[in-house]
Design goal:
The chain has 151 residues and is of the alpha+beta class. The chain contains 3 helices and 6 strands. InterPro entries: HotDog_dom_sf, PAAI_dom, Thioestr_dom.
């Protein structure tokens, strides 16, 4: 079990800790899907994963929910990098546009999330998912609600 008190870390420091430590003892969607935090900067996060047959939809390509989860994670974590310690967020709205299908054969999918607006009550971000050749697979926008401990 981790000994780091996560509540004392700013959002940026928390995301950098996750990037460097890859904590195996903390259950998460990222661990479940095999996500990697490739880049963590203020207002910007890049995550990636390698597809696998478990991600297939009935047509045999990667289910759209995998791209949506990548986008929600990249954009949400980008928002998180703008927040002070003790302040959280949750996704209020997620709009995804799918451009092309992904294969289930170990193809690397790369999602970049970038903050457009970080306010006291809401934040917005945009994101895109690319394959390893740089082809656009999906793009999205999100609105996140900022959760302050004092309400």
């Amino acid at each position: 079990m981790t000994t780091t008190d996560l509540t004392t870390l700013s959002g940026l420091d928390l995301m950098r800790w996750v990037q460097s430590e890859r904590p195996a003892d903390i259950p998460s969607i990222g661990r479940l899907l095999g996500m990697r935090f490739d880049e963590v900067d203020p207002g910007r996060v890049v995550v990636s994963l390698d597809t696998r047959p478990d991600f297939a939809n009935p047509l045999g390509t990667v289910h759209g929910g995998i791209a949506a989860t990548l986008l929600d994670s990249a954009m949400g974590c980008a928002v998180h990098t703008t927040l002070p310690a003790g302040v959280g967020y949750t996704t209020l709205e997620l709009k995804v546009n799918y451009i092309r299908a992904a294969r289930t054969d170990g193809q690397t999918l790369i999602a970049e999330g970038t903050v457009l607006h970080a306010g006291r009550r809401t934040a917005t971000a945009e994101g895109k998912v690319l394959d390893e050749q740089g082809k656009l697979l999906a793009h999205a926008t999100t609105t996140c609600m900022i959760l302050h401990a004092d309400g």
